[in-house]
Write a structure and sequence with these properties.
- By secondary structure, the chain is an alpha+beta fold.
- 39% of the residues lie in helices and 14% in strands.
- It contains 3 helices and 6 strands; from the N terminus they run H-H-E-E-E-E-E-E-H.
- It has a two-stranded antiparallel sheet. A two-stranded antiparallel ribbon has the order 3-6.
- Strand 4 and strand 5 form a beta hairpin.
- Helix 2 packs across helix 3.
C-alpha cells in the first residue's frame, strides 16, 4: 500500500523558519512534523492518551517522541510540552537529544 501526500506547506514553513534561524535551530522537516503533531494532539485530546482498562486516559501535557538510531538500539527521546514549544526550540532540542542519544549521554528522563 502507498499513500501520496502533499507537503508543500510544511516545506514552505521549514524554508521560512530556516531562513530566519541560526544554524543551531534550523528546523528539519521532521521538526515541522513534530510541531504539527503536537498541535494536532492539543486540538484532539482523546488521541493524546492511552488505554487504561476499559477507558481512554488522556494526558494534560503534549509530548512527542522521535526515533534515533544508535549503534546499540533505537531510542525515542521526547519533546515535552511540544505544543507550547516554538519550532526553533524543537529544532535545537531534537539535535541535542539525537546527539546525546548517539553519544550515550542521554538521560532516562529524556526518553
Amino acid at each position: 500500500m502507498s499513500v501520496d501526500a502533499v507537503v508543500t506547506e510544511p516545506i514552505n514553513l521549514q524554508n521560512v523558519a530556516w531562513s530566519r534561524s541560526e544554524a543551531s535551530s534550523r528546523p528539519t522537516l521532521s521538526d515541522v512534523v513534530i510541531r504539527a503533531t503536537a498541535i494536532a494532539l492539543r486540538v484532539h485530546p482523546r488521541v493524546n492518551g492511552s488505554f487504561s482498562g476499559d477507558h481512554v486516559e488522556t494526558y494534560s501535557r503534549v509530548s512527542v517522541a522521535f526515533a534515533v538510531a544508535t549503534h546499540e538500539a533505537v531510542l525515542a527521546p521526547g519533546i515535552f510540552d511540544a505544543d507550547e514549544t516554538s519550532l526553533q526550540v524543537i529544532a535545537r532540542s531534537t539535535k541535542d537529544l539525537a546527539r546525546r542519544a548517539r553519544d550515550s549521554t542521554i538521560m532516562l528522563a529524556d526518553l
